[in-house]
């Protein structure tokens, strides 16, 4: 009974993969979300609103987790509001659990905006860090909701005596519907539309991203890293970058993805061509494609998040992430990035989310 997990944000791209990994490893697992995912057999779903403290206390009344995994966030109009809302969500969950005295470890997932800046000033000139990104890089002199979330964890850990870990993945690639940051599925949907309409598969990002080195994080690898850090003494009270372990250039991978979907690849050509603009009128097209191939989701906004893909691929620098810290402490899991994308595409086909 010393492995009782509470996954906060269990319906998301990270949370859903984490709950699957925990369950397969024999953990008693609770999944908390506004609309819990019930696809994982054996998961104990909990519906709750993280911004409603009384609702949260009622929902978690009988739950005494040993390990808490916070994998959720909420986007707001300004970074100031991001800080207020996302800090409050972390505070509410930890304040609710505090009187129980059961929590041994809290793992918080943030990301590379820790180094690159918040949405309002993301990867702009003047805020560009040295790469590869390393955990010891100091915080930017900018408002950032990731810092607020971390500070809530640190304060609760000091109060309640649990250990913690911070996990900073690069772009997370994995299967989920309705997620706000979902590049892998977005590219699969875009490629499917291109194939159906005979359109070229046009690179939407910057020259630096097209030509430079990059990395990503497989959601399944991130799940293993979360469990490793939360159960390994040497990893206690540390922040970690989390990526697949290889690097790639989009100038190659873009062509490989195009070949997978049998569409024409068009690379960088003097200017950024945002995917949000390219897909602006595709909602009706996707609805027709979904009807034609009997797909499970006919709402384009549920399967594609062009704005976030543009954010990642439009950066003015190449972005690589150093993971030596985890390697030195014993986390040796590796994932080939091309396989990450191809395996995701096969999962999406099997789930009838793309043709």
TrEMBL record:
One Pfam family cited in the UniProt record for this chain: PRISE
Gene3D superfamilies for this protein: NAD(P)-binding Rossmann-like Domain
Domain PRISE-like Rossmann-fold: 66-355
Protein name: SDR family oxidoreductase
Species: Pedobacter endophyticus
